[in-house]
Amino acid sequence: MKQLALVLAILGTAGAWVADLLLLGVPAFRNGWWTLALFALPAALLVLGWGGEENKKLRTGAAIFFVVLLGGWIGLRFSGKLPDAAPAVAVGDRAPDFMLKNQDGKNVRLSDLTDDGRVVLIFFRGKT
User: Fold this and answer.
1) How many CA atoms are closer than 13 Å to the CA of 99, on its beta-carbon side?
2) 104 found inside a domain
3) Running DSSP on this structure, what letter comes out for residue 9?
4) What's the CA angle centered on 45, arms 47 and 14, to 5 degrees?
5) What is the DSSP string of 61-122?
6) Among 72, 6, 66, which residue's Cα sits nearest to residue 39?
7) Has residue 34 been placed in a domain?
8) Domain containing residue 72
9) Residue 73 domain-assigned?
10) Dihedral sign of CA atoms 114, 116, 121, 124 in order
11) What is the pTM of this model?
12) Residue 3: beta bridge partners?
């Protein structure tokens, strides 16, 4: 059982990195320290798999893997080498062209609407 917990700790640590890298593409989560919580499950599995004389190599390897990947995650946050956020649009700047679905579910580009003049966008929070 402890061996399974250690293997799951290794997989969970790698999974935390993958999940964090996927979330870096989402502006709301970029550079967020809250994603450190993704390492809580692998840490708990590492603690569950600890103890006993058997599986010393697996236990040591899982601990080193966890510490190295967690250290790399923290180092990435401090290095400032994370992908830049989407460029902000300042007041008076031209909005970048994008495409969204309208209330009828049809794709509409901003550039299609600007042919008729100025555009006011209103976003309603709700179901899609």
Assistant:
1) 5
2) no
3) H
4) 125
5) HHHHHHHHHHHHHHHHHHHT-SPPPPPP--TTSPPPP-EEE-TTS-EEEHHHHHTTS-----
6) 66
7) yes
8) 2-79
9) yes
10) negative
11) 0.58
12) none
Place of tokens 């569950």: 48
Residue ranges in the chain modelled with pLDDT below 70? 25-32, 80-88, 126-128
**What's the number of domains the chain is made of?**
1
Q: Which of left, alpha, beta for 94 (phi over 0: left; psi -120 to 50: alpha)?
A: beta
**pLDDT per residue over 37-54, tens digit each?**
888 889 998 888 888 777
Strand (E) or helix (H) holding 13 = helix 2-23
Residue 59 token pair: 């236990």
In terms of residues, how long is the chain?
128
Is 28 within the bounds of a domain? Answer: yes
